[in-house]
Design brief:
379 residues; alpha/beta; 7 strands; 7% strand; globular
Length: 379
């Protein structure tokens, strides 16, 4: 960003380098340009993107992610989204991986569209695992217990005309009513998958309550996201007004009787679709604004645990952890100690020595503590 570049220039006259034809090794390059080198971190994420794969929703989500991925934030870090195409690893259970990714995210962004809801509307699917419903259920559970900071839905109305190059969007709320349209029963197999994950990966949180499909979607709808109503961004009023396309050029329409060539017509239709998809870049900007606000808030963790352990003083955290591990401290008892050290319990539960290093521990103590957690967990 311009701000980041200006800050670098202000720090030192050597902040700008003429690379030209010089061959610079990786370590030197990263040292010189580290604020601009995006290292994808799989231990924690800023934004978790939840969507239903489909012809339009996949396009919209890709546009959204492309607009935010690697963006330099005000604290100098690169924005790291969890997006299945970028974040899932080969050879691992994708459902466990995306749930872990959500647990290690600051904000969850569900793409709420008619295509996302369509499968939930069909009562015959109530006995099948619905991974979008699973993501939304976990997001609600984490938000309720303070393990994520925001749920910020992007609402997408029914879209028509994408294939013709004249896309339009209606107001979702005029076409869909959760209380009227959704089954008022629990998708038991999806809930069982959620409960299994939480029992193994989030034992410090209360078990999730089985909610009906109707209740889950209704709760997602209650999260304020007034600047991510895509039909407003696409050019409609959001109140059932007649639809209109985004990118028709009024000047071109008044240009006169000249008939465009077939190539020009195809190019115009393609440009219409590209302009229409830019509304999801606008959503990316709004979500990033919220993220910056969230990251500037004082860090606090509210996790209730059955056992309380007092830690006296504010001494060296590594020494406190060593003292704790030398005693008979149980897995559950370590959480209040971690709270006292201003770390993030759900991050350390799920991940890694890398997460501990990011929290401020040297590699040796991160390795020792990481192994101790795994031993306690498996026991």
């Amino acid at each position: 960003s311009i701000e980041q570049h200006t800050a670098l220039c202000a720090e030192s006259p050597r902040a700008i380098f003429e690379v030209q034809q010089d061959r610079i090794d990786k370590a030197t390059f990263e040292g010189m340009f580290s604020p601009f080198v995006f290292k994808r971190d799989k231990a924690s994420y800023h934004i978790f993107v939840s969507y239903r794969q489909g012809s339009f929703d996949s396009l919209a989500t890709a546009q959204f992610v492309n607009s935010i991925d690697g963006m330099i934030l005000s604290d100098g870090t690169s924005l790291n989204p969890f997006y299945d195409a970028l974040s899932l690893s080969e050879g691992k259970r994708f459902d466990v991986e995306f749930m872990r990714g959500m647990c290690n995210s600051d904000i969850v962004v569900p793409f709420v569209s008619m295509d996302a809801l369509k499968r939930m509307l069909d009562s015959s699917n109530i006995s099948k695992v619905d991974h979008v419903l699973l993501e939304w259920s976990l997001a609600l559970h984490l938000e309720e217990h303070g393990a994520i900071k925001r749920i910020l839905p992007i609402f997408i109305g029914p879209v028509t005309g994408v294939g013709t190059g004249m896309p339009t969007m209606d107001n979702l709320f005029t076409h869909f009513n959760a209380d009227r349209d959704l089954p008022d029963e629990v998708n038991q197999v999806t809930h069982e998958r959620l409960a299994e994950f939480c029992a193994k990966q989030l034992p410090h949180l209360p078990p999730p309550v089985g909610k009906t499909v109707r209740k889950i979607v209704s709760e997602v709808f209650r999260f304020n996201s007034s600047k991510c109503l895509c039909w407003d961004l696409a050019g409609t009023s959001g109140h059932g007004a007649p639809r209109r396309t985004v990118s028709l050029d009024a000047d071109a329409a008044r240009a006169g009787p000249a008939v465009p060539t077939l190539h020009q017509q195809i190019a115009q239709l393609s440009n219409n679709t590209k302009a229409f998809l830019r509304i999801f870049s606008m959503c990316g900007k709004e979500v990033t604004t919220v993220l910056e606000s969230v990251l500037s808030e004082p860090k606090s963790v509210s996790v209730t645990t059955p056992v309380a352990v007092s830690v006296s003083g504010s001494g060296d955290p590594c020494q406190q952890l060593q003292d704790m591990m030398a005693g008979d401290t149980t897995f559950a008892q370590y959480i209040p100690i971690v709270n006292n050290l201003r770390l993030t319990p759900h991050l350390i539960f799920i991940s890694s020595e890398e997460a501990l290093v990011k929290a401020g521990f040297d590699p040796f103590h991160a390795s020792v503590f990481g192994r101790w957690i795994k031993d306690q967990w498996s026991a």
